[in-house]
Structure formats: structure tokens, C-alpha cells
Amino acid sequence: MIAFLVDQNFNEHIVDGMTRRDPALEFIHVRDVDLAQACDPVVLEWAATHNLVLLTHDGRTVPPCAHTRVAAGLPIPGVFLVTDDMPVGQAINELLIAANCLSQDECKDIVRYFPL
């Protein structure tokens, strides 16, 4: 099962809803590992080191950083980018489907955009 690193400004209602629907999911928040103010390359490196897919709303800086990292031969476990205007219920449903249907290998080195 996929485990997640939750970016600093990610909607907590989505994480709470996912946790209520699937308590087995693992979430680590960047704030809990002293990465709240870290730049994207540091966050992606930490996610890679701990094999966590990054949950983010940051479509401006995270995807280019992730693509640069992959192009340099450095892996990422994956990025799930949820648009800010996606309804919370829809985000919960789509992320749960992805978390339970995709393997770690299917997420590796890819930025997935939600809604699907």
C-alpha cells in the first residue's frame, strides 16, 4: 500500500476523510518531520528516502522540481497533485482509489494530477 508525505498546505479535510475511510493508510506531515519550511528539492529527497508519495496542491513549483529530479536520475516515489478547486469528497474518493489500486512501482517517478 502507498504511504504519503503530506505537503505543508495540503487540505487536512482530505487527509482526515481518507483516514476515516481507510485507517490503514499512513500519512506523515512535513511539519512533523521539521520540513514545514523546506524547499521542494529537500521535501522530495526526504520523500524518496522514506519511500513516501508526496500529496500536494502546489502545481507551480513541485512538478518542475520533480521532473528535474527524475531527469537527473534521482528517483521520486511519486507526487499526487490535487487541484485546489477539487471538491473534498471527490479528492478523497479518487485518492483512495489510487492508494488502493496503484502499486509503489506504478507511482515511481511520476506526477499524477487529480482530478483524474
Quaternary structure state of the chains depicted: single chain
Distance between the termini: 19 Å
Strand order of the largest sheet: 2-1-3-4-5
Number of strands: 5
What percentage of amino acids are in beta strands? Answer: 15-25%
Q: Overall mean pLDDT score?
A: 97
Please mark out the parts with pLDDT under 50 across 5 or more consecutive residues, or reply none.
none
Main pleated-sheet profile: 5 strands, parallel
Report the radius of gyration as a whole number of Å: 13 Å
Order of helices and strands: EHEHEHEHHE
How many helices in DSSP terms?
Answer: 5
Class from helix and strand fractions: alpha/beta
Query: What percentage of residues falls in helices of 4 or more residues?
Result: 40-55%
Shape annotation: globular
Overview of this protein structure:
By secondary structure, the chain is α/β, with parallel strands linked by helices. 41% of the residues lie in helices and 17% in strands. The chain has helices at 12-21, 40-49, 62-71, 88-101, 104-107; strands at 3-6, 26-29, 53-56, 79-82, 111-114. The protein has a 5-stranded parallel beta sheet, with helices on both faces. α1 (12-21) packs across α4 (88-101). The longest helix has 14 residues, at 88-101. It is globular, with a radius of gyration of 13 Å. The chain starts with a strand and ends with a strand. The relative contact order is 0.21. The model has no long low-confidence stretch (mean pLDDT 97).
